[in-house]
Amino acid sequence: MTADRSALRVLFVAFSRSSLGHVTRMRTAAQRFQLAGHEVAIASHEEVRPLVERAGLPWIGIDEIGPAPAWRGMNDVAELRAFARTRLAAPAYVETCLRDELRAIDDFAPDAVVSDMRNTASVAAAIRGLPSVTCHNLRLFRHPMHAVLPEVLITLDQLGVPEAHARKVLGDAMLVPDLPLLDPLSDIPADTMALVGSLVSEIRHVGALVPAELRDVASDAVREPMLNITLGGSGAGDKDLLRAVSAAAGLGVRLVVTLGTDGEGSDALAAQVRAAAGDAEVDVAGFRHDAVDVMARATAAIVHGGHSSMIEGLLCGTPLVFLPHSAEQRGNAGRITDLGLGATVEPDDEADTITAKIRSMLTPADRGLHTAFAATLRSADGAQAMVQHVEQAVALHRITRSTHVRP
């Protein structure tokens, strides 16, 4: 922040109950804004409050819908839109979101709102006359946002939200936390792109949001003979988790497994993981607060291919093996595999094939390729780019607002 600019108050709003990636990104961004001298707060569900407060950031509670893995298997647009009307576009849910977001805005009194997959936060910002920015992976507009976004707009209209506010659903600008090489604008289907382009003034790739703990990690450090297996906590990946552990059990490396949940059934799943590992050394945990350190020390990692775990692995220079479930994950896996930075397990791969793919990432042909890509990805510094964008947006907002109120 330059010396002639005053400190801002910035509210971050994150969707959190189906994926920790969104709140993790907002936490990273908020930390960078705080470092730049701004006051911040993160609005998220109670379940992820510790993730926010452990980072030394103020937390504001908002309600959130529970996980629903069923959408991952829906490819028919009409079916997915009907499902969205019972979930992310349900009138009761949208109304609750707006109520909570408006309360958070009124309590914190921000100068700007930044949101990640919280589809109404920028609408609430518009209602209060504030500039807003949304953080989105473009690949999600191939599935499921191509179906969810139109339904959210319909619901906002049904709730009587003025069109000028409702059409801020993607904010004044949409910032993509990635490189165009990994998440290209051209991947958005043409009809969805037409809708997106009609809603938002600017779409900008800013680069990955690099957590503070990753900025000091050496991507070329000596690796432990260890395989990091982390497939999220939605419950959709339990079979894949056991499939991965079984395939890796005979490779002679320590298996560090993160279940992604400490809730009901986690003890039983942990027991299944240990049984699948056989004689291999295995470390099982529900959650890990040192997840970045584990990723950085691992020889290789097995992930589903969600954006956050993928970027974390790439930033650490850790070769990745993908077991994708959703369309977004399959797209991420395909891109990284094509670049020679990972391997993708197909649904019909036999156990021996999976083992071979894991082995290929434990001993990659050119580990320097992974290190070089990590350095390039870090250099983009998406968090700093976001700080600069929001500072400029608020400055312009203040100028235009003062012009409009002159007699």
In words, what does this structure look like?
By secondary structure, the chain is of the alpha/beta class. It starts with 8 loop residues before the first strand and ends with a helix. Helix 4 crosses helix 5. Strand 8 (226-230), helix 10 and strand 9 (254-258) form a beta-alpha-beta unit. Strands 3-2-1-4-5-6-7 form a seven-stranded parallel sheet, with helices on both faces. A six-stranded parallel sheet has the order 10-9-8-11-12-13, sandwiched between helices. The protein has helices spanning 21-35, 49-53, 77-84, 91-108, 121-127, 145-158, 163-166, 190-199, 212-215, 238-248, 266-277, 291-297, 307-316, 327-338, 351-362, 367-380, 382-404, and strands spanning 9-14, 39-44, 59-61, 112-116, 132-135, 173-176, 202-205, 226-230, 254-258, 282-285, 300-303, 320-322, 342-344. It contains 17 helices and 13 strands. The longest helix has 23 residues, at 382-404. Helix content is 46%, strand content 14%. The chain has two domains: 9-210 and 381-404, Glycogen Phosphorylase B (Rossmann fold, 3-Layer(aba) Sandwich), CATH 3.40.50.2000; 213-378, Glycogen Phosphorylase B (Rossmann fold).
What is the beta-strand fraction?
5-15%
Q: What's the helix-strand series?
A: EHEHEHHEHEHHEHEHEHEHEHEHEHEHHH
Second rung of CATH, namely the architecture of the largest domain: 3-Layer(aba) Sandwich
List the strand order in the largest sheet.
3-2-1-4-5-6-7
> What's the β-strand tally?
13
Q: Give the overall average pLDDT.
A: 91
Measure the end-to-end span. 32 Å
Query: Structural class from helices and strands?
Result: alpha/beta
**CATH-defined superfamily of the largest domain:** Glycogen Phosphorylase B
